[in-house]
Automatic annotation (TrEMBL):
This is Peptidase MA-like domain-containing protein. It comes from the Bacteria. Keywords: Membrane, Transmembrane, Transmembrane helix. The chain crosses the membrane at residues 6-21. The keyword Membrane applies.
């Protein structure tokens, strides 16, 4: 009798251990990349393989230029909520509202620039990642499948828009896009605005001028100069066109959409604490 219950407890313990702490490792090939997966999440092998394959094909199918991804990329999956990130050969994914930012982070890794410098224009990197995630991936940060244009209209109406000269320039880019992990609510809110604004502006550029033109400013060091050469307009002129474009009835944030964006009200509550120098 005792041995039976001990056995049951032991088996149950092992199952719990396997379910929550298992470290499932496997590899698979998609296109020219071998993905080495370290799975700490409850997602199964085949669902991970399907999701990564779908993301790879969507990203590589959307871009026109030549990219040279690493021949092996390590992928880590975790169940808990934390900040996902990517380098050229490593992608670490945490869950956000039950989903992984697979398309977003994989786009950073696959479309990594030739040089590993920091200022390759965060606005273009993040804007494209969110644009692709919204188009091909699950609903995750920062817009949860809601049109970035609709959220951008709210930001604009609140007087919190970052001028494009600042968003796309290099002097403030670290503060806007990469605040320290232990930063306060206002910095997080500013980062969220930067992401939403980049997504809206990049989607506008791609829809209006095409992917090929956008890729000429993507992964470039001096975005502002490059934008002028590619689009024949400076940041102020492009800003005017873009804001006019998103100012339509179909891009007004509905109540239903508002509920889909977790934390929108929380971000908003910090708007008053954001330093004026970023938004004027
Ligand atoms: Zn990103």
């Amino acid at each position: 009798m005792i041995t039976a219950s001990v056995l049951i407890v032991l088996i149950a313990g092992l199952m719990i251990y396997w379910f929550y702490f298992k470290e499932d490792r496997f590899t698979f090939q998609v296109g020219q990349v071998e993905f080495a997966v370290e799975n700490h999440s409850t997602a199964g092998r085949s669902s991970i393989q399907d999701e990564v394959t779908h993301a790879y094909e969507a990203i590589m199918g959307a871009v026109k230029g030549d990219y040279d991804p690493a021949s092996q990329i390590s992928l880590e999956f975790y169940n808990q909520k934390d900040i996902s990130f990517a380098t050229r050969d490593e992608v670490v994914l945490f869950k956000d509202q039950g989903h992984f930012l697979t398309v977003h982070e994989l786009s950073h890794a696959l479309l990594w620039g030739k040089e590993e410098q920091d200022d390759r224009g965060y606005w273009a990197l993040e804007g494209l990642a969110i644009h692709l995630q919204t188009e091909y991936g699950d609903p995750v940060y920062p817009n949860y499948d809601v049109s970035p244009h609709a959220i951008m209209n709210v930001v604009k109406e609140e007087g919190m828009m970052i001028p494009l000269t600042k968003l796309c320039g290099t002097s403030m880019s670290r503060m806007l896009f990469q605040p320290s992990l232990e930063s306060d609510g206002a910095s997080r809110s500013l980062q969220w605005i930067s992401y939403i604004e980049s997504a809206s502006f990049v989607s506008y550029l791609i829809d209006e001028y095409g992917m090929e033109e956008f890729e000429k400013v993507f992964n470039e060091k001096d975005s502002l100069q490059q934008m002028k050469e590619v689009y024949g307009k400076d940041a102020a002129e492009l800003q005017e066109d873009w804001l006019a474009y998103i100012d339509q009835e179909s891009y007004k944030l509905s109540e239903r959409e508002q509920k889909k964006v977790p934390g929108l009200e929380k971000r908003r509550s910090y708007f008053g604490e954001i330093d004026e120098r970023y938004i004027h």
